[in-house]
Design goal:
The chain has a five-stranded antiparallel beta sheet with strand order 1-2-3-5-4. Strands 6-9 form a two-stranded antiparallel sheet. A two-stranded antiparallel sheet has the order 7-8. The protein starts with a helix and ends in a 16-residue tail after the last helix. The chain has 347 residues and is an alpha+beta fold. It is 36% helix and 14% strand. A hairpin with a 3-residue loop joins strand 1 and strand 2. The protein has 14 helices and nine strands. Keywords: ATP-binding, Kinase, Nucleotide-binding, Serine/threonine-protein kinase, Transferase. GO terms for molecular function: ATP binding; protein serine/threonine kinase activity. InterPro entries: AGC-kinase_C (IPR000961), Prot_kinase_dom (IPR000719), Protein_kinase_ATP_BS (IPR017441), Ser/Thr_kinase_AS (IPR008271), Ser_Thr_kinase_AGC (IPR050236).
């Protein structure tokens, strides 16, 4: 007979070390610049998660090591019901693995493309969810800096949660060199390479709710330069005549105050609590929302993701990747990519 204790210890050691072998991959949920996101099941307890599998070679090639490490470092410090939380992080020779809350509702971009516009009640609820998540980050001194519909994901109840901390930063006075972001949602002060604060997130919030109301962004263009030129040439504001039927003046004013080009004129710039105190939210039940006792006005149908999992879906191997991974100095920068609340043991 075999020694069961030896088998148990081997399984415990494997769990402690963390490995892709500890998970069963069920579906592919999405694709990104560095890899893919999968729905996975942890074999130990059958718990479902989302798992980002990121190619080290692609991260090195795109010179994004700092961004990827920054995301994990920030997520270690954060846990909140309105953000997508990290459960563990580990690596092997070729990939980084980030295990996150599984949200089954799809992102806001997917639902915007499907619905084109939303009602005032739905948009107000989306805004409130975003405000709650931003409030948490800002209280921790963190600016998200890439707030957009793609980074807002619905859970199965219909609550929106914020994800992707890749270019989020702990605020510092001299940050004019932090110019990453997504054109169309990027605040003018970032595009113009100026020092900036939490008001950049409020600008993006205004753009998102504008989009929910009118089905388009206030500033559009084929390039970052075109969008920048538009922003610098004219302050866009929603006129009463542009308000959709059944939308309130307060909703239009909320958006207008957020998409102000000058940060000092923007709602929330001087006092973040002003955003929640705006007349549009005068009768909104913030406490029920935070406790998730609110009845969401929009229920997302379950997002099925992509069908078909193959070895090629998970692994993207080529000779160029192997050449990049032979660079020991670069690969050593990933050494700290490890997080296990149970017992983090570095490989």
């Amino acid at each position: 007979m075999g020694n069961c204790n030896v088998i148990d210890k081997k399984e415990e050691f494997q769990e402690a070390m963390q490995s892709i072998r500890n998970y069963e991959i069920l579906d592919i949920l999405g694709k990104g610049g560095f890899g893919k996101v999968f729905k996975v099941k942890r074999k130990k307890n059958n718990q479902l998660y989302a798992m980002k599998i990121l190619s080290k070679a692609k991260i090195i090639e795109k010179k994004s090591i700092t961004s990827v490490l920054n995301e994990m470092s920030l997520l270690k410090q954060l846990h909140h019901p309105f953000i997508v939380n990290m459960h563990s992080a580990f690596q092997d020779r070729e990939n980084l693995y980030l295990v996150l809350d599984l949200l089954s509702g799809g992102d806001l971009r997917y639902h915007l493309c499907k619905n084109k516009r939303f009602s005032e009640e739905e948009s107000q609820f989306f805004a409130a969810c975003i405000i709650i998540s931003l409030e948490y980050l800002h209280q921790h001194g963190i600016i998200h800096r890439d707030l957009k519909p793609e980074n807002l994901v619905f859970d199965e109840q219909g609550y929106l949660r914020l994800t992707d901390m890749g270019i989020a930063r702990v605020w510092r006075p001299e940050n004019s060199s932090d110019t990453s972001g997504t054109p169309g949602y990027m605040a003018p002060e970032v595009m113009c390479k100026q020092n900036h604060g939490i008001a950049v997130d409020f600008f993006a919030l205004g753009v998102i709710i504008y989009e929910c109301m009118l089905g388009k962004r206030p500033y559009v263009g084929k390039s970052r330069q075109e969008i920048r030129d538009q922003i610098l040439s004219k302050q866009i504001q929603i006129k009463r005549s542009q308000l959709p039927v059944a939308w309130s003046i307060e909703a239009g004013d909320f958006i207008n105050q957020l998409i102000q080009r000058k940060p000092e004129n923007r709602l929330g710039s001087n006092n973040p609590s002003d955003v929640k105190k705006h007349p549009w939210f005068s009768s909104f039940d913030w406490e029920s929302l935070l406790k998730k006792k609110y009845d969401p006005p929009y229920y997302p149908k379950k997002f099925k993701g992509y069908e078909g999992i193959t070895e090629d879906t998970i692994d993207d191997k080529n000779e160029k990747n192997f050449v990049l991974l032979r660079n020991k100095t670069l690969c050593e920068q990933f050494n700290e990519y490890c997080y296990n609340p149970e017992a983090c043991i570095k490989k």
